[in-house]
Amino acid sequence: MELNGVEIEDTFCEAFGAVFTRILVTAIDEKWVKIASQVATGYGTSTIHCDSEAGVDVFVSANDTPDRRPGAILMFFKTKKEKMDSVLLNRIGQCILTCPTTACFDALNCSLDPEKDFEIKTGYKLKFFGDKYEEKVDGVYSFEAWKIPVMDGEFVVQSNFKVGKGIAGGNFLIFGETKEATLKAAEKAVEAIKEVENVITPFPGGIARSGSKVGSQYSFLNASTNDPLCPTLRNKIEDSLLGERDNYVYEIILDGATEDAIKKAMKLGIQAAAKISGVNKISAGNYGGKLGKFQYRLHDVLS
Questions:
Q1: Which of 237, 40, 258, 84 is CA-nearest to residue 168?
Q2: Which alpha helices (H) appear in 160-258, and where do they start and end?
Q3: Coil, strand, or helix at residue 168?
Q4: Which of 8, 69, 234, 260 pairs with 295 at a CA distance of 20 to 30 A?
Q5: What does pLDDT average to over the chain?
Q6: Where in the chain do CATH 3.30.70.520 domains reside?
């Protein structure tokens, strides 16, 4: 299959189940919304070592937030549901509570299995920072919230946050002849994916240069560089997956609330990448179906 002269390999990406939260951060203006979002989602690329995979989903106008201020929706993904409470408590407590003018609310609106959504008492726990000066917000919202006294006024936080079942590790690979073309294609893919709600691309700028494989020749590592896709190893190993003109590879990794969101984001991202001259091929990463139950064949996604 070809798209704009770019080969779309007949393969599938392999993703796995995860739990996630989706929160809304508001602030006095867009500048502080962006600062809070950047800090709160930092160090959130891969659950190989980070406490969660994190990213900005969408920015929201003041007309669509509970406190009528501009906001951003952030998503956090984790493979173990019992760990999500500490993830959200740490990231809201250390990065949003501390940021000037912010407030924080739940924003989960869909998941793989809504009947299995559950709640964590993040805001209720954070209220104790108020040292008995915290107060329940009455008559303002349709949900329970707390106001915590801070040095620029009050930090308002919703009492409970929902946790849903989602998908992590959706992906596709962009093979290109020059670094400029391949990077531009990856950037265009991420821009297209941003149009889809309930999806994040957690790596820096949405792009991963360091694709990994499971395991390592070093016994103390559980993941290591994906050597068949490293151009500098093309003539040093027997199982290279790179053609003669495949000098650069970037991976787009996606986490999403639903299968429809993941597939739509993959389709838009691949279509955008394939428009860039100098892209040779689009492929995807999988482990033969052994890693996760969610498998998305590229040809089917694009059909």
A1: 258
A2: 179-193
A3: strand
A4: 234
A5: 96
A6: 2-14+166-302, 19-164
Helix (H, G, I), strand (E, B), or coil: what is residue 115?
A: helix
Do 70 and 29 meet the contact criterion of CB atoms below 8 Å apart?
yes
Question: Is residue 11 packed enough to be buried (19+ CB in 10 Å), middle (13-18) or exposed (0-12)?
Answer: middle
- The tokens for 184 are 């531009």
pLDDT of residue 273: 98
What is the tens place of the pLDDT at every residue in 250-270? Answer: 999 999 999 999 999 999 999
- Classify domain 2-14+166-302 at the CATH topology level: Alpha-Beta Plaits (3.30.70)
The string of pLDDT tens digits covering residues 171-197 is 999 999 999 999 999 999 999 999 999
| Residue 205 main-chain phi, psi, to 5 deg | 65, 15
Token pair, residue 225, equals 């560089």
- Extract the tokens encoding 185: 């294609």
- How far is residue 29's CA from residue 46's CA, in Å, rounded to a whole number? 30
Architecture field, domain 19-164 = 2-Layer Sandwich (3.30)
Give the pair of three-digit tokens for residue 21.
């939260």
Does this model's pTM top 0.85? My answer is: yes
Query: Helix 259-273 vs helix 179-193: angle between axes, to the nearest 10 degrees?
Result: 140
How far apart are the C-alpha atoms of 189 and 57, rounded to whole Å?
15
pLDDT in tens, 226-255: 999 999 999 999 999 999 999 999 999 999
118: how many CB neighbours lie within 10 A of its CB? 12
**Cβ proximity of 100 and 27 under 8 Å:** yes
- Which pLDDT band, with edges at 50, 70 and 90, does 220 fall under? very high
- Tell me if 167 sits within 8 A of 17, measured CB to CB: yes
How buried is 172 (Cβ within 10 angstroms: 0-12 exposed, 13-18 middle, 19+ buried)? buried
Residues with Cβ within 8 Å of residue 186, at least 6 apart in sequence? 174, 206, 207, 250, 252, 273
